[in-house]
Amino acid sequence: MSDWQAAAVADPSLCSYQLHIEITRARWLSIGRLGRFRFPAGHYVYTGSARRNLVARVRRHLAREKTLRWHIDYLLAARHAHVRDVSLSREAECRLNQRLPGEIPVPGFGASDCRAGCRSHLRYLGAAPVPEPDRHSLARSRV
Ligand SMILES: [Zn+2]
Predict the structure, then answer these.
(1) How far is the CA of 114 from the centre of ligand 1 (A)?
(2) Residue 106 — very low, low, confident or very high, per pLDDT cuts 50/70/90?
(3) How far is the CA of 67 from the centre of ligand 1 (A)?
(4) How far does the centroid of ligand 1 lie from the alpha carbon of residue 121, in Å?
């Protein structure tokens, strides 16, 4: 069991997660009904939540074979997209997301249900090395 899984099992108050994604080559990708977008190479963070079954949700994100359903599924199905780390938090997903630096590569990405005005739950942090983990995040671990 990886560190993030053990943490999620031990602490039921963990409800939000962030996937730290690296895209190793710039790519044009179709993201469901949102359309086609260019994703520069570099580092991205996707923020989501699951009040129940947090482990199952994150494991689904990490699985290569699955039905493409959410926007993030289309991104992670790309050959050059890799989840490098997972971090978990007790904070609401929108607060975590809004503290991230970076740019919004795809307006509306993962934000269909967002009521907090995030505009996107995917951020592009640029090509530089991944910054220090958010101090509110727990159990960040390599995948
Ligand atoms: Zn939000």
Answers:
(1) 4
(2) very high
(3) 24
(4) 6
